[in-house]
Amino acid sequence: MKLNTQSFALNLKHNKRAITIFPQLLILVFIVLLSDVTNAQSDSAVFAWPEGKRAAVSLSFDDARESQVISGTPLLDQYGVKATFYVVPSTMEKQLDGWKKAVTNGHEIGNHTLTHPCTGNFSWSRNNALEDYTLKQIRNELKECNKRIRELLNVKAEVFAYPCGQKFVGKGINTKSYVPLVADMFIAGRGWMDEAANDPVYCNFAQLTAIEMDGKDFDQILPLLEEAKKTGQWLVLAGHEMGEPGFQTTRLVMLKNLMEYAKDPSNGIWIKPVGTVAKYLKEHKK
Ligand SMILES: [Zn+2]
User: Fold this and answer.
1) Quick check: 66 and 95 in contact, CB under 8 A?
2) Does domain 50-284 match CATH 3.20.20.370?
3) Which residues contact 225 (CB under 8 A, 6 or more apart)?
4) What is the pLDDT of residues 147-186, one digit of tens each?
5) How far is the CA of 142 from the centre of ligand 1 (A)?
6) CA-to-CA distance for 152 and 146, rounded, in angstroms?
7) Could you say which of 9, 111, 187, 279 has the lowest number of CB atoms within 10 Å?
8) CB 53 within 8 A of CB 77
């Protein structure tokens, strides 16, 4: 009887321990489950692009260089790929028919200011330096450029690219960012010579990053595409002339390879103009 009492007491002790251990076990199981869910979420954190695509790519070209509509858009049109062209109207006028055709074929026209002001550290911009601008002046440039684009092409420019990728006016303590102005006037503002692609959920539309594609072969672009696919990013590529290898020139051979890659459904690339992607994100990223 004594033994029985002892074994009862022992059982009770074990049960008590089991009762105190049980909630701890529950917490542990909960933590393990939660970390599994978190891992699954970070694995699937890749943004849901349309049509099950894994990344977005925008091709963009600046300054309305003549080669863009002489040899660039005909190649893009062969592949049915639409790009964004950030134009300076006075340069655009040199090939106006080509630009009209580009618009008819679905390419996007963006604003790149009226006179392309950059820092006066560039000797060619010393007499039209951002350091000497005010916010009022730059706003006027942007407005006038939009007006000119409408007159020449009957298009409303909804996107903008900062000349030289520079986003300021003034000097010293009077330096001001004109990013808020761009945010107010356009659905997207694109930089230049950045190092990262855009995170579709996080990105600031008025300061989209762009990676240079001038002077590059496809094997230099491919790692950027692969990285964008892995992380679900939006890669905006930026270039100038379009043709054979040369100064500030996006190589047509590279573009051909890039478009073939993007057209292969197994690569899951959504290749669209900047404005199209920006609008999609603004609608879907909430
Ligand atoms: Zn430019």
Assistant:
1) yes
2) yes
3) 55, 57, 235, 258, 261, 267, 269
4) 999 999 999 999 999 999 999 999 999 999 999 999 999 9
5) 14
6) 10
7) 9
8) no
